[in-house]
Amino acid sequence: MNQRARIVMTGEEVATLLKEGRKLQLATINPDGTPHLVTMFYGLSDDGRLIFWTYAKAQKSRNIDRDPRVTCLVEVGDDYGDLRGATIYGTALPYDDVMDAGMRITARMTGQDPEPMRPYVELTGRKRVAYIVEPGRVVSWDHRKLHGSS
C-alpha cells in the first residue's frame, strides 16, 4: 500500500475530526476567478455538515451568492506527525435559521454552553447570513497512521 493510501481517513474518522476542530479555512471564488480564502469558526449540523455564518455584505457571502462552490479545510495538530485534516469540496447552501447557526458556532468557539452568549448572537445575527456545506468530495489525511499511532 502506498503512503497516500495509508493516511486516508474513514468517514467516521473525518466526522471525529470535524467534531474536534473549531476553525476552518473557507475558499470561495472571487468575481475574477481568484480564490478568496478566510478562516472561520464553524458549527456542525445534526448530520455532521459544516455550518458557518458571516455578514451579509462580506465578500465571501457575495461570492457564494454568485457561485456557491466552496472548499473547506479543517486541520488539527501542530507537529507533522500529528497532523490530521480534511478538505471538503462542496456547495454552500443557505441555512435559514441564522440564530441556530450562531448558537452552534458559539458553542464550538467557547467549548461551553452558548446560552449566556445568546444576547450577543441575537445582536450580531441581525446582519448575518448562514450557510451549510453540502459535501461533494472529501480528501483526508492522518499522519499519525504513518507511525502506527492512530
Write the layout of secondary structure elements.
Blueprint: H1 3-7, H2 11-20, E1 23-29, E2 35-41, E3 43-44, E4 50-55, H3 59-66, E5 69-76, E6 84-94, H4 98-110, H5 118-125, E7 128-142
Antiparallel strand pairs: 1-2, 1-5, 3-4, 4-7, 5-6, 6-7
Helix content: 25-40%
* Largest sheet properties: 7 strands, antiparallel
Beta-strand fraction estimate? 35-45%
Radius of gyration over all CA atoms, rounded? 16 Å
Poorly predicted spans: none
Report mean pLDDT, rounded to a whole number.
Answer: 93
Q: What is the CATH architecture term?
A: Roll
CATH classification class: Mainly Beta
Q: How many domains make up the coordinates?
A: 1
Number of continuous helical runs: 5
CATH level-4 homologous superfamily = Electron Transport, Fmn-binding Protein, Chain A
* Strand arrangement across the biggest beta sheet: 2-1-5-6-7-4-3
Given the helix and strand composition, which structural class is it?
A: alpha+beta
Number of strands: 7
Keywords: Oxidoreductase
Domain Pyridoxamine 5'-phosphate oxidase N-terminal: 12-105
InterPro entries: F420H2_bilvrd_red/Heme_oxyg, Pyridox_Oxase_N, Split_barrel_FMN-bd
Protein name: Pyridoxamine 5'-phosphate oxidase
